[in-house]
Write a structure and sequence with these properties.
The protein is an alpha/beta fold. The chain has a single domain, classed as Rossmann fold (3-Layer(aba) Sandwich). Helices cover 50% and strands 15% of the residues. Strands 1-4-3-2-5-7-8-10 form an eight-stranded mixed β-sheet, sandwiched between helices. Helix 3 links the parallel strand 3 and strand 4. Helix 2 packs across helix 9 and helix 5 runs parallel beside helix 6. The radius of gyration is 20 Å and the shape is globular. It starts with a strand and ends in a 7-residue tail after the last helix.
């Protein structure tokens, strides 16, 4: 069974009216801020993560503020871990009202230099991790007759913005298709599925980017392009949003009586989606390359 650490007063636990939320990838960044914001708004919140050694900060805040926050071990790449965590939460509360599928990372490198195994691992976390947790909570939500699932996608889930993120973009495109289709499947059961699409976010996500093992800056035929891209991305991240900005959009979406399918986050995201609708494919590709190669940033 998963390890669950209690960090809030029993007055919240006795409130059967409180909504129960599960957030994956909560050790930092978007998941961290979302777990705190939901708990501060009286959701009984399970901040889940693979490594509980990273939970100290959340537990300290929860104890200090006396908010209904719990920390639970959940590895989205492991069937048993997901099933045990969800079963334990349901046993304790009798319900799950909200799932936020946030866990994910970015694999950096050209498709040529990435191994098949590295690409599979990218999909294992970013796509199949979402599939596992969603499959685990849907039966309970269906029996309840209500529920909300938030899938954290990206502007890179609707537009292949940069080179060297082929596996990441593909995994997020897959999340978009999954969400659109399953939204139809579950509509009759009053289960909402929402896409949140952040632009650049200042968080540990960037620090946790994994570079493909086959990339060697001294030998790679892509080395020059990689250098140009990183120089251009400085302007991209200069106008980035904070993880709490994403959390606030999530809170707005889940509290809406009739939520939209998509919620972009950040001025850069708005500019990118505007360009996507107004420009031809050729002009869009040119604009994107100019934006990150020539340090202009994604502003229109």
């Amino acid at each position: 069974m998963p390890t669950i650490m209690y960090s809030y007063s029993t007055t919240y636990h006795s409130n059967n009216m409180a909504k129960v939320a599960v957030v994956t990838g909560s050790s930092s960044g978007i998941g961290y801020e979302t777990s705190l914001l939901l708990a501060r708004n009286q959701f009984t919140t399970y901040a889940t993560m693979r490594n509980l050694n990273k939970s100290e900060g959340l537990r300290e805040i929860a104890a200090k503020e006396k908010i209904p926050l719990k920390v639970a071990q959940l590895d989205v790449n492991n069937d048993s871990s997901v099933d045990n965590a969800v079963d334990s939460i349901i046993k304790e509360n009798g319900k799950i009202n909200l799932l936020v599928n946030n866990a994910g990372y970015d694999l950096f490198g050209s498709l040529e230099e990435a191994s098949i195994e590295e690409i599979r691992e990218q999909f294992e976390t970013n796509f199949f991790g979402v599939v596992r947790t969603t499959k685990a909570v849907v039966p309970t939500m269906r029996k309840q007759g209500s529920g909300t699932i938030v899938n954290i996608s990206s502007v890179g889930g609707r537009l292949g913005l940069t080179p060297f993120g082929t596996a990441y973009h593909a995994s997020k495109f897959a999340i978009e298709g999954l969400t659109e289709s399953q939204r139809h499947e579950l509509a009759d059961f009053n289960i909402n599925i929402i896409l949140v699409e952040p632009g650049a976010i200042r968080s540990n996500f960037v620090d946790n980017i994994k570079t493909v093992k086959g990339f060697d800056s001294n030998k790679s035929p892509y080395a020059k392009t990689v250098q140009q891209m990183f120089q251009g991305l400085e302007s991209f991240f200069a106008s980035s949003s904070q993880p709490v900005d994403v959390a606030q959009v999530i809170l707005i979406a889940v509290n809406s009586p009739s939520p939209e399918l998509r919620y972009p986050v950040g001025k850069d995201a708005e500019s990118i989606f505007k360009a996507r609708t107004e420009l031809s494919d050729r002009d869009l590709e040119k604009w994107v390359r100019e934006s990150y190669m020539e340090k202009k940033g994604f502003v229109r």
